[in-house]
Amino acid sequence: MTATETGSRLWNISTHPSTSPTPSSERDAILANPGFGGNFTDNMVRAKWTADKGWHDAELVAYGPLLLDPATNFIHYGQAIFEGLKAYRHADGSIKTFRPFKNAQRFAASARRLAMAELPEELFVASIEALVRQDHEWVPHDAEKTLYLRPFMFSTEIGLGVKPADSYEYLLIASPAGAYWPKGLKPVSVWLSDDYVRAAPGGTGEAKCAGNYAASLIAQAEASQHGCDQVVWLDAAERRWIEEMGGMNLYFVYGSGDSARLVTPRLTGSLLPGITRDSLLTVASDLGMRADEGQISVEDWKAGCESGEITEVFACGTAAVITPVGEVKSRTNGSWAVADGGTGPVTSRLRQELLDIQTGVIPDRHNWLHAIC
Ligand SMILES: *Cc1c(COP(=O)(O)O)cnc(C)c1O
User: Which of 249, 270, 275, 314 is the pocket-test mutation for ligand 1 (most atoms within 8 Å of CB)?
Assistant: First the structure.
């Protein structure tokens, strides 16, 4: 295909699928118990960008290893970004994705922050359509199972000079997914990270880049050492304001019943702007609950739980949807439980409502679903 810089044309993805796809009996066995992120479909999509040709050679090919020169730039300097979204099987057999243009926009924003080439939104969505259509048999039929899509991009220039690369590769792979947490919808315990920060003002916290995850692992390991499931990040400057939980955004529920009100930390530039977070602001207000962006300090969280004003806390993201937070531990602020440590009614209600929209059980009142096949 001819190179172009514009995102307004239709992209042709040439199709050369695997000639030895997984036998259906083997695929069925994987889909019966997919786990998370360990099995992949038969094919992938890739496209290349060079300074002279722009985006070109978009193609669907058999899933397989990449051959990389040891001096490939991203291995050394980390120009690498990714996205995550899901394809859902509806009861009528059709397959939909949820707000894929939002992922495309965030992918482009991440690319800008890392001085990488931006993938046109239309090519991002076209790659998803091509792969899901080809590998549609990998989208599970059971409720709660999905096909997780992982678009990613890295620099491919060869050489050790530190500068924005002059070539990039975009790839899309897909992985059937069961429930994200093997133990089911069970509240998690969290460790407040007083010592390590995820992101600072002016840093890369808003970008979905590989390096943010590398930098988070030591704090996650510290959380595990203290018997906690997940780490909660505080702001870098004061170590006081709540930002996120691991790779998920957070919501705090104040009050209950008709007076329940939700607050999620506002996007300061060091939080990742989650699409689930954004969707829940709307879904909560659809259900008659006030939902605002605000600032929550560690002291507010603790005092709010002790007084009973904070009734529920949950984390949200594409992979795990909504996960209740039951218990908080920290080095400098003590430990406390969120209400009785169980899963609250607002958490359950929002989770069900969002899942019902995504899986077509209730009408898609905000036009969030994108039909694929
Ligand atoms: C991806 C991600 C989220 C959640 O974003 P969604 O679009 O809701 O999946 C939250 N925090 C971090 C750090 C993330 O990487």
Answer: 249
pLDDT digits (tens, 9 = 90+) for 270-302: 999 999 999 999 999 999 999 999 999 999 999
Is the Cβ–Cβ distance between 205 and 271 less than 8 Å?
A: yes
pTM: 0.96
Cα–Cα separations (whole angstroms), residue 20 to 41, 63, 258: 12, 11, 56
What spacing in Å lies between the alpha carbon of 207 and ligand 1's midpoint? 10
Looking at the chain, the number of H-run helices and the number of E-run strands are 8, 18
Q: What phi, psi does 289 have (nearest 5°)? A: -105, 140
Strands (E) across 13-84 are located at 14-16, 43-50, 54-62, 80-82
Ligand 1 binding residues, C-beta < 6 A: 84, 208, 244, 247-249, 272, 274-277, 317-318
**How far apart are alpha carbons 368 and 371 in whole angstroms?**
10
Q: What is the DSSP letter of 216?
A: H
Q: What angle do CA 125, 99, 367 make, to 5 degrees?
A: 120
Question: Is the distance from CB of 178 to CB of 50 less than 8 angstroms?
Answer: no
3 state SS of 27 = helix
Q: What are the backbone angles phi and psi of residue 234, rounded to the nearest 5°?
A: -110, 165
The rounded Cα 85 to chain-centroid distance in angstroms is 6
**Burial per residue of 195-233, b for 16 or more beta-carbon CB atoms within 10 angstroms, e otherwise:** ebbbbeeebbbbbbbbbbeebbeebbebbeeeebbbbbb
* Per-residue model confidence as pLDDT tens digits over 147-161: 999 999 999 999 999
226 CA → ligand 1 middle, Å: 24
- pLDDT tens for each residue of 211-245: 999 999 999 999 999 999 999 999 999 999 999 99
Alpha-helix residue ranges (DSSP H) falling in the chain: 24-32, 73-77, 100-113, 121-134, 210-225, 275-286, 298-307, 345-358
Report the candidate in 150, 147, 110, 116 with the shortest Cα–Cα distance to residue 132: 147
Ligand 1 atom closest to residue 103's alpha carbon, by position in its atom list: 7
Query: Which domains does the chain carry?
Result: 2-178 (3.30.470.10), 188-358 (3.20.10.10)
Residues 255-277 as b/e (b if ≥16 CB within 10 A, e otherwise) read beeeebbbbbbebeebbbbbbbb
